[in-house]
Structure prediction request, 400 residues.
Amino acid sequence: MIPRHLKPTLNKAARQYPVVSLTGPRQSGKTTLVREAFPRHQYVSLETPEQRTFALEDPRGFLEQFTGKVILDEVQRAPDIFSYIQGIADDRHEAGQFILTGSQNFLLLHHISQSLAGRCATRHLLPFSRAELARQPMADLATLGKAAPKTNGMTPARNLFETLFTGGYPRIFDKHLDPQDWLRNYYQAYIERDVRDILNIGDLETFGRFLRLCAGRCSQLLKLSSLAADAGVSHTTARRWLSVLEASFLVYLLRPHHKNFNKRLVKSPKLYFLDSGLLCYLLRIRSPEDLRIHASRGAVFESWVVSEIVKNYVHRGLEPDVYFWRDSSDHEIDLVIERSDGSVPVEAKSGETFGSDFLDGIRYWKELTGRKDQPAALVYGGQTSYMREDVAVMSWKAWG
Prediction:
């Protein structure tokens, strides 16, 4: 089993709160993680028809069958149970009594906010990060941009394009599956099950077209009216569907940075996917070799860079404090990370050979801020890391 970075944070939460909820996309490894992190807890899945029926028809009796601590998997399938969990948690005053998991983040959080506010710690599990797959610790964001990481001796099992093409869903690695075959089934299951249940969509083909259009706009400013028009739906419908994709941990909307440096800024977010393998599937990229020469190669790489830093935050139990910056003259920084010691600009370039023009955006940013010695980083598709013009030029092998 590949160790998950979230495990220490999850265990800490269970020592402090009576209820801990773990959400994330389907097949991100939630069940495996909670069963490994809490081996002495009883385990029940509400995907099992008889258990779900019991919980729906007699929630009190269902919970009274457990004499000790328990893991309730896919708990949003029995929404009435949350009020009864509240009563038990208040009576027992014991940390880690209930570990709840769920794939439908919006439904789970809705019930938690209604019944378990103040009693529940919520954590999120995303697909494998690069560092997890390499069995390495997470990158230290406090030192990012101050020095070049060591990449000597780092030999990933997959090269850059195999990494991007495969993505990070655990079952692909556990069972050594073909990524395209597994992602095709995953996509169909998501469309046919989750979307129909949540949105009550009659025309699933239209939603599928909408999702692929989102993939085609990855790493771009989100222009919702244009997206809605191309998908053949209303602006309101497009916004609702996008909210579901975001709450399902499939896409991530990166908000613009608030500092303008006397420049007018764009106000729209940028659209990214949290798994590069799923993004490649939706773009109909059929192999790592196809990705190497594909027109969307740069967009896929940039999306991967953003998703890796989001995982770094989320798997430490933190809200991502990340943005992008673009002014009205189209000067742009792909990623701005906020730290206590200031903002760190990060650029993403998929080229395998460093070019001086890779640093143009960071040079412009430093000129505007007046801080030539400000920490900054460039993530690129090459193999080595080093300092250049006070910028940490980082191989993709050391990112995240």
Summary: The first strand starts at residue 19 and ends at 23. The chain is about 40% helix and 15% strand. The two ends are 20 Å apart (CA to CA). The mean pLDDT is 91.
